[in-house]
Amino acid sequence: MRISLNGAERDLPDGATVAAAARLVGVAPDERGVAVAVEGAVVPKARWAETPIPDGARVEVVRATAGG
Amino acid sequence: MDAPLTIAGEELGSRLLLGSGGFDRLDRFEAALAASGAEIVTVALRRVEDAPGGLYDVIRRAGARVLPNTAGCFTARDAVATAHLAREAFETDWVKLEVIGDRRTLLPDAVELLRAAEELVGEGFVVLAYTTDDPVLGRRLEDVGCAAVMPLGSPIGSGLGIRNPDAIELMRDAISVPLVLDAGIGTASDAALAMELGCDAVLAATAISRAREPERMATALRLAVEAGHAARRAGRTERVHHARASTSDAGLPDLTPSAG
Protein backbone atom coordinates (compact mmCIF):
# COMPACT_ATOMS: atom_id res chain seq x y z
CA MET A 1 0.00 0.00 0.00
CA ARG A 2 1.03 3.60 -0.40
CA ILE A 3 0.82 6.27 2.27
CA SER A 4 1.92 9.87 2.62
CA LEU A 5 4.48 10.00 5.42
CA ASN A 6 5.45 13.53 6.44
CA GLY A 7 4.59 14.68 2.94
CA ALA A 8 6.52 11.94 1.09
CA GLU A 9 4.89 9.03 -0.75
CA ARG A 10 6.02 5.75 0.85
CA ASP A 11 5.25 2.12 0.03
CA LEU A 12 4.51 -0.05 3.06
CA PRO A 13 3.30 -3.64 3.39
CA ASP A 14 -0.47 -3.92 3.74
CA GLY A 15 -1.50 -3.68 7.37
CA ALA A 16 1.68 -1.82 8.41
CA THR A 17 1.26 -0.15 11.78
CA VAL A 18 1.83 3.38 13.03
CA ALA A 19 4.90 2.10 14.87
CA ALA A 20 6.38 0.94 11.55
CA ALA A 21 5.75 4.30 9.93
CA ALA A 22 7.32 6.13 12.87
CA ARG A 23 10.37 3.85 12.62
CA LEU A 24 10.74 4.79 8.95
CA VAL A 25 11.38 8.39 9.97
CA GLY A 26 13.67 7.36 12.82
CA VAL A 27 11.28 7.60 15.73
CA ALA A 28 11.08 4.85 18.35
CA PRO A 29 7.98 4.49 20.54
CA ASP A 30 9.97 5.29 23.68
CA GLU A 31 11.13 8.69 22.39
CA ARG A 32 9.65 11.53 24.40
CA GLY A 33 8.22 14.66 22.87
CA VAL A 34 6.92 13.12 19.65
CA ALA A 35 3.42 12.49 18.35
CA VAL A 36 1.72 10.91 15.34
CA ALA A 37 -1.45 11.90 13.52
CA VAL A 38 -3.15 9.64 10.98
CA GLU A 39 -5.58 11.54 8.78
CA GLY A 40 -5.29 14.46 11.21
CA ALA A 41 -6.24 12.45 14.30
CA VAL A 42 -3.74 11.66 17.05
CA VAL A 43 -2.83 8.02 17.63
CA PRO A 44 -1.67 7.65 21.27
CA LYS A 45 1.80 6.18 21.62
CA ALA A 46 0.48 3.18 23.54
CA ARG A 47 -1.49 2.17 20.45
CA TRP A 48 1.18 2.66 17.77
CA ALA A 49 2.09 -1.02 17.65
CA GLU A 50 -1.48 -2.23 17.25
CA THR A 51 -2.87 0.43 14.92
CA PRO A 52 -2.74 -0.41 11.20
CA ILE A 53 -2.54 2.47 8.76
CA PRO A 54 -5.27 2.57 6.09
CA ASP A 55 -4.11 2.52 2.47
CA GLY A 56 -3.66 6.03 1.13
CA ALA A 57 -3.63 7.63 4.59
CA ARG A 58 -1.76 10.79 5.44
CA VAL A 59 0.59 10.21 8.38
CA GLU A 60 2.41 13.00 10.20
CA VAL A 61 5.18 12.36 12.75
CA VAL A 62 6.12 15.48 14.70
CA ARG A 63 8.55 16.57 17.37
CA ALA A 64 9.27 19.70 19.46
CA THR A 65 11.18 22.39 17.66
CA ALA A 66 12.10 25.97 18.45
CA GLY A 67 9.24 28.38 18.18
CA GLY A 68 7.19 31.25 19.49
CA MET B 1 4.15 40.10 50.09
CA ASP B 2 3.53 40.11 46.36
CA ALA B 3 1.26 37.29 45.15
CA PRO B 4 2.93 35.09 42.53
CA LEU B 5 1.69 34.91 38.96
CA THR B 6 -0.92 32.17 38.87
CA ILE B 7 -2.18 30.65 35.62
CA ALA B 8 -4.90 28.00 35.83
CA GLY B 9 -4.12 27.48 39.50
CA GLU B 10 -0.40 27.00 38.86
CA GLU B 11 1.87 29.37 40.80
CA LEU B 12 4.87 30.58 38.85
CA GLY B 13 8.03 32.08 40.24
CA SER B 14 8.85 34.14 37.16
CA ARG B 15 6.88 36.69 35.20
CA LEU B 16 9.07 36.27 32.14
CA LEU B 17 8.11 33.54 29.67
CA LEU B 18 10.66 32.46 27.08
CA GLY B 19 9.97 31.64 23.46
CA SER B 20 12.47 29.13 22.10
CA GLY B 21 12.38 30.43 18.53
CA GLY B 22 15.30 32.04 16.72
CA PHE B 23 18.28 30.61 18.61
CA ASP B 24 21.06 29.46 16.32
CA ARG B 25 22.44 26.97 18.86
CA LEU B 26 20.87 24.81 21.54
CA ASP B 27 23.59 25.66 24.08
CA ARG B 28 22.88 29.37 23.63
CA PHE B 29 19.20 28.71 24.23
CA GLU B 30 20.04 26.74 27.37
CA ALA B 31 22.22 29.55 28.74
CA ALA B 32 19.55 32.14 27.95
CA LEU B 33 16.88 30.02 29.62
CA ALA B 34 18.96 29.84 32.81
CA ALA B 35 19.62 33.59 32.75
CA SER B 36 15.98 34.45 32.07
CA GLY B 37 14.68 32.55 35.08
CA ALA B 38 11.68 31.62 32.91
CA GLU B 39 9.58 28.71 34.12
CA ILE B 40 7.50 28.49 30.95
CA VAL B 41 9.02 27.94 27.51
CA THR B 42 7.09 27.84 24.27
CA VAL B 43 7.87 25.25 21.61
CA ALA B 44 6.42 24.40 18.22
CA LEU B 45 5.65 21.05 16.63
CA ARG B 46 7.09 20.19 13.24
CA ARG B 47 7.74 17.10 11.13
CA VAL B 48 10.66 15.18 12.65
CA GLU B 49 12.82 15.72 9.56
CA ASP B 50 12.69 19.45 10.28
CA ALA B 51 12.93 19.18 14.07
CA PRO B 52 16.42 18.04 15.08
CA GLY B 53 15.52 17.04 18.64
CA GLY B 54 17.14 17.81 21.95
CA LEU B 55 15.09 20.91 22.69
CA TYR B 56 12.47 19.12 24.75
CA ASP B 57 15.16 17.48 26.89
CA VAL B 58 16.91 20.80 27.52
CA ILE B 59 13.67 22.39 28.73
CA ARG B 60 12.81 19.45 30.95
CA ARG B 61 16.33 19.38 32.37
CA ALA B 62 15.95 23.04 33.33
CA GLY B 63 12.76 22.17 35.17
CA ALA B 64 10.67 24.52 33.03
CA ARG B 65 7.16 23.86 31.79
CA VAL B 66 6.74 23.29 28.06
CA LEU B 67 4.08 25.46 26.48
CA PRO B 68 3.34 24.16 22.97
CA ASN B 69 2.14 26.71 20.46
CA THR B 70 0.00 26.37 17.38
CA ALA B 71 2.20 28.63 15.26
CA GLY B 72 1.61 28.28 11.55
CA CYS B 73 -2.08 27.42 11.92
CA PHE B 74 -4.51 29.51 9.88
CA THR B 75 -7.76 27.81 10.83
CA ALA B 76 -9.43 26.75 14.06
CA ARG B 77 -9.46 23.17 12.77
CA ASP B 78 -5.67 23.09 12.28
CA ALA B 79 -5.04 24.76 15.63
CA VAL B 80 -7.24 22.28 17.47
CA ALA B 81 -5.56 19.33 15.71
CA THR B 82 -2.14 20.75 16.58
CA ALA B 83 -3.16 21.13 20.22
CA HIS B 84 -4.18 17.46 20.23
CA LEU B 85 -0.74 16.48 18.88
CA ALA B 86 0.97 18.68 21.46
CA ARG B 87 -1.01 17.15 24.31
CA GLU B 88 0.13 13.70 23.18
CA ALA B 89 3.76 14.74 22.60
CA PHE B 90 4.32 16.74 25.78
CA GLU B 91 1.75 15.32 28.18
CA THR B 92 0.37 18.78 28.84
CA ASP B 93 -3.05 20.26 28.26
CA TRP B 94 -1.60 23.77 28.21
CA VAL B 95 -1.46 25.43 24.81
CA LYS B 96 -0.46 28.82 23.49
CA LEU B 97 -3.15 29.26 20.91
CA GLU B 98 -2.12 31.13 17.77
CA VAL B 99 -4.42 31.27 14.79
CA ILE B 100 -2.86 33.47 12.18
CA GLY B 101 -4.78 35.38 9.56
CA ASP B 102 -2.08 36.86 7.39
CA ARG B 103 1.45 35.77 6.48
CA ARG B 104 2.94 39.22 6.17
CA THR B 105 1.82 40.57 9.53
CA LEU B 106 1.22 37.24 11.33
CA LEU B 107 -1.70 38.99 13.00
CA PRO B 108 -4.29 36.75 14.63
CA ASP B 109 -7.55 35.87 12.87
CA ALA B 110 -10.06 36.92 15.53
CA VAL B 111 -12.92 34.74 14.31
CA GLU B 112 -10.91 31.52 14.00
CA LEU B 113 -9.07 32.28 17.25
CA LEU B 114 -12.24 32.62 19.29
CA ARG B 115 -13.71 29.51 17.70
CA ALA B 116 -10.60 27.44 18.47
CA ALA B 117 -10.37 28.82 22.01
CA GLU B 118 -13.94 27.85 22.78
CA GLU B 119 -13.47 24.35 21.38
CA LEU B 120 -10.19 23.70 23.20
CA VAL B 121 -11.49 25.01 26.53
CA GLY B 122 -14.48 22.69 26.06
CA GLU B 123 -12.04 19.79 25.66
CA GLY B 124 -10.30 20.67 28.90
CA PHE B 125 -7.28 22.51 27.53
CA VAL B 126 -5.64 25.38 29.42
CA VAL B 127 -5.66 27.98 26.68
CA LEU B 128 -3.31 30.97 26.60
CA ALA B 129 -4.54 32.97 23.65
CA TYR B 130 -2.29 35.10 21.45
CA THR B 131 -4.42 38.03 20.36
CA THR B 132 -4.45 41.54 18.97
CA ASP B 133 -4.45 44.37 21.51
CA ASP B 134 -8.25 44.59 21.34
CA PRO B 135 -9.92 44.80 24.77
CA VAL B 136 -13.25 43.55 23.39
CA LEU B 137 -11.72 40.45 21.81
CA GLY B 138 -9.65 39.93 24.94
CA ARG B 139 -12.79 39.89 27.05
CA ARG B 140 -14.47 37.49 24.66
CA LEU B 141 -11.47 35.16 25.01
CA GLU B 142 -11.75 35.38 28.78
CA ASP B 143 -15.49 34.75 28.56
CA VAL B 144 -15.01 31.48 26.66
CA GLY B 145 -12.62 30.33 29.38
CA CYS B 146 -9.08 31.20 28.31
CA ALA B 147 -6.63 30.92 31.21
CA ALA B 148 -4.58 33.88 29.99
CA VAL B 149 -4.86 36.53 27.31
CA MET B 150 -1.69 37.40 25.41
CA PRO B 151 -1.92 40.65 23.48
CA LEU B 152 0.77 41.67 21.02
CA GLY B 153 2.77 44.83 21.52
CA SER B 154 3.60 44.86 17.79
CA PRO B 155 3.95 42.15 15.12
CA ILE B 156 5.79 38.92 15.96
CA GLY B 157 9.54 39.29 15.65
CA SER B 158 9.35 42.99 14.78
CA GLY B 159 11.06 44.30 17.90
CA LEU B 160 8.94 47.45 17.63
CA GLY B 161 7.90 47.35 21.26
CA ILE B 162 4.45 48.39 22.45
CA ARG B 163 2.91 50.54 19.72
CA ASN B 164 -0.35 51.21 21.51
CA PRO B 165 0.17 51.41 25.26
CA ASP B 166 -3.35 52.81 25.74
CA ALA B 167 -4.86 49.63 24.28
CA ILE B 168 -2.82 47.48 26.66
CA GLU B 169 -4.07 49.57 29.60
CA LEU B 170 -7.65 49.18 28.38
CA MET B 171 -7.12 45.43 28.17
CA ARG B 172 -5.84 45.43 31.73
CA ASP B 173 -9.04 47.16 32.84
CA ALA B 174 -11.25 44.78 30.84
CA ILE B 175 -9.66 41.45 31.69
CA SER B 176 -9.31 39.58 34.99
CA VAL B 177 -7.27 36.55 33.92
CA PRO B 178 -3.50 36.99 33.57
CA LEU B 179 -2.48 39.36 30.81
CA VAL B 180 0.78 38.38 29.13
CA LEU B 181 2.38 40.82 26.70
CA ASP B 182 3.41 38.67 23.77
CA ALA B 183 5.18 39.68 20.56
CA GLY B 184 7.05 42.84 19.69
CA ILE B 185 9.33 43.14 22.71
CA GLY B 186 12.65 44.49 21.44
CA THR B 187 14.59 45.34 24.54
CA ALA B 188 14.43 45.77 28.31
CA SER B 189 12.48 49.04 28.36
CA ASP B 190 9.66 47.43 26.32
CA ALA B 191 9.33 44.66 28.92
CA ALA B 192 9.38 47.16 31.78
CA LEU B 193 6.69 49.24 30.06
CA ALA B 194 4.47 46.19 29.60
CA MET B 195 4.59 45.53 33.31
CA GLU B 196 4.09 49.20 34.19
CA LEU B 197 0.95 49.17 32.03
CA GLY B 198 -0.41 46.37 34.19
CA CYS B 199 0.54 43.19 32.38
CA ASP B 200 1.08 40.20 34.65
CA ALA B 201 3.92 38.79 32.59
CA VAL B 202 5.90 39.16 29.38
CA LEU B 203 6.80 36.58 26.75
CA ALA B 204 10.00 37.24 24.84
CA ALA B 205 11.64 35.21 22.10
CA THR B 206 13.26 37.23 19.34
CA ALA B 207 14.32 39.98 21.73
CA ILE B 208 16.57 37.43 23.41
CA SER B 209 17.44 34.97 20.64
CA ARG B 210 18.40 37.65 18.12
CA ALA B 211 20.23 39.90 20.57
CA ARG B 212 23.97 40.04 19.99
CA GLU B 213 24.40 38.37 23.39
CA PRO B 214 21.25 36.36 24.13
CA GLU B 215 22.26 35.32 27.63
CA ARG B 216 22.96 38.92 28.66
CA MET B 217 19.68 40.10 27.15
CA ALA B 218 17.83 37.34 29.01
CA THR B 219 19.23 38.77 32.25
CA ALA B 220 18.23 42.29 31.17
CA LEU B 221 14.65 41.25 30.44
CA ARG B 222 14.37 39.35 33.72
CA LEU B 223 15.42 42.47 35.61
CA ALA B 224 13.20 44.72 33.48
CA VAL B 225 10.14 42.58 34.16
CA GLU B 226 10.86 42.66 37.87
CA ALA B 227 11.46 46.42 37.81
CA GLY B 228 8.33 47.16 35.80
CA HIS B 229 6.22 44.98 38.04
CA ALA B 230 7.57 46.68 41.17
CA ALA B 231 6.95 50.11 39.62
CA ARG B 232 3.37 49.19 38.78
CA ARG B 233 2.75 48.08 42.33
CA ALA B 234 4.45 51.15 43.73
CA GLY B 235 2.11 53.42 41.77
CA ARG B 236 3.78 56.01 39.59
CA THR B 237 3.60 59.74 40.15
CA GLU B 238 1.00 61.62 38.14
CA ARG B 239 1.94 63.30 34.89
CA VAL B 240 1.61 67.11 34.78
CA HIS B 241 2.59 69.49 32.01
CA HIS B 242 4.38 72.04 34.16
CA ALA B 243 7.08 71.88 36.78
CA ARG B 244 6.36 71.08 40.40
CA ALA B 245 9.27 72.04 42.60
CA SER B 246 10.57 69.14 44.56
CA THR B 247 12.63 71.55 46.69
CA SER B 248 10.74 73.87 49.02
CA ASP B 249 11.13 77.66 48.78
CA ALA B 250 10.73 77.93 52.55
CA GLY B 251 13.93 79.20 54.16
CA LEU B 252 15.50 80.28 50.88
CA PRO B 253 18.40 82.56 51.91
CA ASP B 254 18.49 86.10 50.55
CA LEU B 255 21.89 86.43 48.90
CA THR B 256 21.42 89.93 47.51
CA PRO B 257 24.14 92.32 48.81
CA SER B 258 22.52 95.02 51.05
CA ALA B 259 22.34 98.51 49.55
CA GLY B 260 24.91 101.06 50.97
Concise overview:
Helix content of chain A is 10%, strand content 35%. By secondary structure, chain A is mainly beta.
What do these coordinates show?
The complex is a heterodimer of chains A (68) and B (260). By secondary structure, chain A is mainly beta. Chain A has one helix spanning 18-24; strands at 2-5, 8-11, 34-38, 41-42, 58-66. In chain A, strands 2-1-5-3-4 form a five-stranded mixed sheet, with helices on one face. The model of chain A has no long low-confidence stretch (mean pLDDT 92). Chain B is α/β, with parallel strands linked by helices and 260 residues long. Chain B is 38% helix and 17% strand. Chain B is built from nine helices and ten strands. In chain B, helix 1 (26-36) packs parallel to helix 9. The model of chain B has no long low-confidence stretch (mean pLDDT 95). At the A-B interface, strand 3, strand 4 and strand 5 of A face strand 4, helix 2 and helix 3 of B. Strand 5 of chain A pairs antiparallel with strand 4 (40-47) of chain B.
